């Protein structure tokens, strides 16, 4: 789809004219450190999204564990264990090339989300790895995030989406299965049915 040039916003002045000035509250809520109120959000969150940027493009990766899985080392530092996955390591490759990261924390049942921007480093320090052991298994690395800005996002998006409303949840079978997606896209004889049958147990056995 091509946007008509007459209807495309391509400069900051035009954008500011369209949207106006940000509210006072939206500016006052931003801090350069982890305020005790924001600490509470992070400690209550079992899920977050990690956004990174690198030479091959952008990436947003879901991360989850029991609430508080992102540890607060101090008011300016977060520690994120890198759990077992598919070894694409898109986020980590990006961090090596560009340390800038953005984190979005969600808390089940809560409308507000918490946003953290900063710069990250990848650590394999033995003490850090041991700190995040689960089921006797340590993560391969820990992302050390040096916090630059922290602020909460108002609840409008989650209210509009009704994200936490059980009434709108759909059955997983209403969407294509993971095996079918890989089989249809790959078109290389991949056995999607066998993949789907083995998936539940494989996920259970490879969480950590």
User: How do the helices and strands follow one another from N- to C-terminus?
Assistant: HHHEEEEHEEHEHHH
Main sheet overview:
7 strands, antiparallel
Q: How big is the Rg?
A: 20 Å
Give me the CATH superfamily of the largest domain.
Electron Transport, Fmn-binding Protein, Chain A
Unreliable runs: none
- CATH fold-level label of the largest domain: Pnp Oxidase, Chain A
Walk across the major sheet and give the strand order: 2-1-5-6-7-4-3
Total beta strand runs: 7
**Second-tier CATH architecture of the largest domain:** Roll
Structural class: alpha+beta
What gross morphology would you assign? globular
What fraction, in percent, of the residue positions are helical?
Answer: 25-40%
CATH class term of the largest domain: Mainly Beta
User: Please, what is the average pLDDT?
Assistant: 95
How many discrete structural domains?
A: 2
SS summary, helix count: 8
- Terminal Cα separation, in Å? 43 Å
């Amino acid at each position: 789809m091509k946007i008509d040039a007459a209807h495309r916003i391509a400069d900051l002045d035009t954008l500011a004219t369209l949207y106006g000035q940000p509210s006072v509250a939206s500016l006052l809520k931003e801090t350069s450190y982890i305020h005790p109120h924001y600490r509470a959000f992070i400690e209550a969150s079992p899920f977050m999204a990690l956004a990174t940027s690198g030479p091959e493009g952008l990436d947003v990766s879901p991360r989850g564990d029991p609430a508080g899985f992102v540890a607060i080392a101090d008011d300016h530092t977060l520690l994120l264990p890198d759990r077992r996955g598919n070894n694409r390591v898109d986020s980590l490759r990006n961090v090596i090339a560009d340390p800038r990261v953005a984190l979005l924390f969600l808390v089940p049942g809560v409308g507000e989300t918490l946003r953290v921007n900063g710069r990250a480093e990848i650590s394999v320090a033995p003490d850090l790895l041991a700190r995040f052991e689960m089921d006797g298994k340590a993560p391969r690395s820990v992302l050390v995030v040096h916090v630059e800005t922290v602020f909460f996002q108002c609840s409008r998006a989650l209210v509009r989406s009704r994200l936490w409303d059980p009434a709108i949840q759909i059955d997983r079978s209403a969407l294509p299965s993971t095996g079918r997606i890989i089989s249809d896209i790959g078109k290389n004889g991949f056995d999607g049915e066998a993949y789907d049958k083995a998936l539940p147990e494989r996920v259970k056995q490879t969480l950590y």
